[in-house]
Amino acid sequence: MRIKNLIAIGFVIMLVLAGLVGCTSGTDSPIYTSNQQEGIWVNGHGEVNAAPDIAILQLGISAQRASVADAQAEAATSMDRVMSALKSNGVADKDIQTQYFSIQQVTRWDQDKQEEIVIGYRVSNMVAAKIREIDKTGSIIDAVAEAGGDFTRIDGISFSIDDPSEYRIEARDEAMVDAKTKAEQLANSSGVRLGKPTYISESISYPVYAQPPGVAEGAVAPTTPISPGEMMVSIDIQVVYAILD
Asked: Of 41, 114, 168, 231, which residue is 20 to 30 A from 222 by alpha carbon distance?
């Protein structure tokens, strides 16, 4: 009798454990329902062209001398003049940021000794200068070139929009209209009624050039001619619309 009771208790425990395993397995595994795939899924695109209002110059100096001390002194003096030129033309301290500084050996190959020999040292100091008065970009380039002399280096120029939020609002509205137009067409073609959006996801693109900036041929000006051109602010969205019965 006692053995029978033990067997019965063991059987009950096995059933309980089997039930627990089944519950755990059901909890860990995702449950998919058809509702997760219901609806009309579309992508919408909106874009707005806008004139940039900021120019960013990558500029600085590079000085080479026989010793590190001489190269560094020459570079410091020239960079001070460049910084003064930027500030005197309205570029604020907060809009000037050091991007690169280096002291490097300058070598050449000695054919007789069959080895590299040091012939000097080069000190480079580059900054990014944000120009908020974009119309002054050309004159600032000229001022920097004059201040730095033969040590001046200008690596590039780029343009941006300081606050693109208002353009993004317009692009977002266009993207929603584009998405709804596509969804309505799909609904009509499928013979169903379009419901409200149940899911919206947005992807913002950074401003890019809508057309390359250029300078008119034969343009003559007392300062370096700079043309900001236009930039494109774009937004892409994904929208899921419900299907009404």
From this structure: 231
Q: Express each pLDDT in 31-42 by its tens digit.
A: 333 455 689 999
Tokens 């250029």 — which residue?
A: 214
140, 89 contact by CB (below 8 A)? yes
Give me the CATH topology for the region 35-51+164-244: Translation Initiation Factor IF3 (3.30.110)
Percent of the chain predicted with pLDDT > 70:
78
Alpha-carbon gap, residue 231 to 50, rounded angstroms: 5
**Residue 140 corresponds to which tokens in the numbers above?**
């600032």
> Which residues neighbour 58 within 8 Å (Cβ) at sequence distance 6 or greater?
99, 126, 127, 128, 154, 155, 156, 157, 158
Q: Which CATH class is domain 54-160?
A: alpha beta
Rounded CA gap, 176 and 201, in Å?
A: 11
Q: Is there a contact between 217 and 236 (Cβ–Cβ < 8 Å)?
A: no
Asked, colleague to colleague, whether 35-51+164-244 and 54-160 share their fold, the answer is no
Rg (CA), the chain: 34
The answer on pLDDT for 218 being more than 80 is no
Domain ranges of the chain: 35-51+164-244, 54-160
Judged on CB neighbours under 10 Å (0-12, 13-18, 19+), 83 is buried
DSSP H stretches of helix in the chain: 2-28, 68-88, 137-148, 165-190
Q: At 17, is the secondary structure helix, strand, or coil?
A: helix
The structure tokens listed for 43 are 């992508």
Contacts of 234 (CB under 8 A, 6+ apart): 45, 46, 47, 48, 171, 205, 208
